[in-house]
Design goal:
six-stranded mixed sheet; about 25% helix; UDP N-Acetylglucosamine Acyltransferase, domain 1; binds coenzyme A; alpha/beta; about 180 residues; single chain
């Protein structure tokens, strides 16, 4: 998974991997923390030992970079965080592959702790976007900068504004690639 995340750090404009982006540290620590969490119960002593090491390191980098991704959140391979700062993902969130998120984004509850956001594959969240409530975002969706999404979003669409209105993607190129995929 981590290798697939790394591939997403390729910048096609400058023809280089942007591994120097600090957000990658959080993704790596998230992957490790989640792998520890998924270890079977009988590994309890090993799990405890690994947690004692990883939890403070993960907490340190999460606070330093302002990126809160609890390891309960399920995020598929090809996860890319552009920049850093005030990124919050709810622990119940389930997110597909090739997910891209920018600074200032929140995926969380609207007004109930039971809310769960489910996001499909190839979804991009523009800077400052919020996805709130008990809702589903389809595949190949782009959420515009500063949008506040409060309802389901179908496949191959764009969500913009507050509250977000849904627009279809214009052409095959947009559907397949999205602006940041
Ligand atoms: C959502 C987005 C991808 C749409 O781009 P696009 O496919 O080229 O679409 P258009 O610019 O043709 O806009 C389509 C409509 O949505 C509106 N719109 C686009 N982005 C919007 C936004 N962020 N908020 C509100 N409305 C928006 C446009 O005004 C237009 O409305 P209209 O049809 O009534 O004229 C793009 O505007 C965006 O927000 N990208 C995220 C950029 C970002 O976060 N960059 C961070 C860099 S660090």
């Amino acid at each position: 998974m981590l290798r697939k995340d790394l591939y997403r750090y390729y910048n096609p404009v400058f023809h280089r991997f942007e591994w120097n982006e600090p957000s990658y540290i959080v993704i790596a620590l998230y992957r490790v923390s989640r792998a520890i969490r998924m270890m079977p119960k009988w590994c309890f002593p090993v799990k405890l030992l690994l947690n004692l090491i990883i939890v403070p390191i993960y907490a340190f980098f999460s606070i330093l970079l302002g990126i809160s991704i609890p390891r309960g959140a399920k995020i598929g391979p090809g996860f890319r965080i552009y920049h850093f700062g005030t990124i919050v993902i709810n622990p119940k969130a389930v997110i597909g592959k090739n997910f891209s998120i920018h600074h200032g984004c929140t995926i969380g509850v609207k007004n109930s702790y039971y809310d769960q956001v489910i996001i499909g594959d190839n979804v991009t969240m523009g800077a400052g976007a919020k996805v709130l409530g008990n809702l589903k975002i389809g595949n190949n969706v782009t959420i515009g900068a500063n949008a506040v999404v409060l309802s389901d979003v179908p496949d191959n669409s764009i969500a913009v504004g507050i509250p977000a209105k849904i627009l279809p993607k214009k052409n095959e190129y947009d559907i397949k690639r999205g602006p940041f995929n």
